[in-house]
């Protein structure tokens, strides 16, 4: 018992010894918690002190900044005017219609109510309900109509349709649609200028936007913390173009007519005041509608628009908006002979009376021979003035050599080629010219002299010709006349800027005489303007292909002219790209230039100075039909009729025939007019039969023998009938059949004529009786 009691007591003592240690541990934990809480409280107090005292001002500023809402008020964009004050670009009020779910969140819109709303909208907007449903996106704000007429939007607002929001704004409107589209350009949805003057003078036109600054909560409700700050917008300035709307309309109508007549891909026209450098008209047909720039513009585009990919549509837009007159390059061809001629006269290396000899080819050029425009009928002995009028390549190669590489390049640069003209339109190209004289090889020197192997912009060429016309001063071309405020007060007036003098007044006068010779008796006789002295230069060049070569059957035809030559005022450039059929500049570009210039001179009130009718008028000649004739025969017929001819030659053959001619057979023209002939050298295996009528048996044998074909004769005398017919391909399997007969004597001819007249009279009588019945 004693042992057990002893153990019990010892256990109790041990327990009593452990209890103080447990209490100590609990006390330690409580102390630690209290210490942690105290530290945390001190940190919070410190943080509150830092926020409330140390950085309270900064936090207040940041809060106000986040709550401050700035609403920009778009300023009214300035107008674009023509030089007479006609409005070419204005601002009109319009509205956008939105379907906004936030407007009916508290009262959900039932499906039937939504359909009813869409039906009412469709009726008032003028679209189908099906089209509106396609635009709706679930629980998202959807614009279902844009640029809606103000009267329609007011009607929709009055209907107070659930979920429908109407936002008013202004948009750009162009009253004349396509007129001067490549000059004016257009704006985007935000009113920022794209392309043309809208882009180049965007800062002046846009003005300065206004502001409304206020403090608002997250629900956009104004808070009465401080007064709102309002800054009124500053309206944009008005830009007055140098373009004359009347002249622009004249030019555009004539460009369309020229494009249709020539069945061309594009026609571009520029009219410049050669005394000031101002551009009076500039157009490229095809152009685009400024009010709908992203719509398909041409018939081809409209037919295939839905089949195009987005990338293809973008490429078409950029092509439509591109201004060929400023943004693109082309080879000027023989119009560039004006530059060579002016340089040579200024350097006194030639005179208008100097004689040259044209053989039809330039054979002594490494990489040649080069063909003259006169081939296959070389001009022979010819003066410099005649070579310019008839566009003789041989003459100008000789002149270019006399001038030399250094001097020719000096004047090319002097006339502004190879650098921007400084015209106030975006995207102007520099052009491509030789970098230095030593890079010009002999072949390039020869082709440069007549406008091949060089790339220029249309604005560069007309500006250079204007400097020749105005006495020798190279001007800075301008598209802007002045900038005015809304009261019409001038803010900035653009005065003429002379960049440099290129040639002397005496050289300028000599060049005007040379240019007049082109119109009077050269390649542009169809450019005569009754009552005025008009001069110019034609040009024809092959299109440059994408691989750097030339397109064999695609041409750029052009004419640049100056009037009136008594006191030069206007310069005009017409460029016809890829005409079908007739492709010479004198045939497709010169008549359009003359028609436009005649109207411009009359509109400008410039009096006529030359005799129009009475003495001195040339006789009227009806153009004979020479198609399918051998070139030798065609030339004789035209000369006997009192006409001249020009032939583009593509080879050498005694069997060359005429395939087309301009003017067309039966056209009445002045005596001495040049008829352009289009030839087939007949060098392929498929030979085309020429007209043999009227030739003797021996003459026919001389023509057919080299062809190594069989032929049969029937009768004696001259050819009256042939097989195959003229223009048909000669068969190698069947012989050519020629029927001959003795020529009629004068008495026989008279008798035959009387019999034919009698027979025709009887035929007409029978026809009249039939018509009466």
Helix/strand/pairing class, anyone? alpha+beta
Terminal CA distance: 168 Å
Number of DSSP helical runs:
24
Total beta-strand segments: 31
Question: How would you describe this structure to a colleague?
Answer:
- The protein is α+β, with helices and mostly antiparallel strands and 773 residues long.
- 37% of the residues lie in helices and 22% in strands.
- The chain has 24 helices and 31 strands.
- The strands form 10 sheets. Strands 2, 3, 4, 5, 10, 18 and 19 form a 7-stranded mixed beta sheet that branches. It has a 5-stranded antiparallel beta sheet with strand order 12-11-23-22-21, sandwiched between helices.
- A hairpin with a 5-residue loop joins strand 18 (480-484) and strand 19 (490-493).
- Helix 13 crosses helix 16, helix 13 (337-346) crosses helix 19 and helix 15 packs across helix 17 (442-448).
- Residues 745-773 have low confidence and may be disordered.
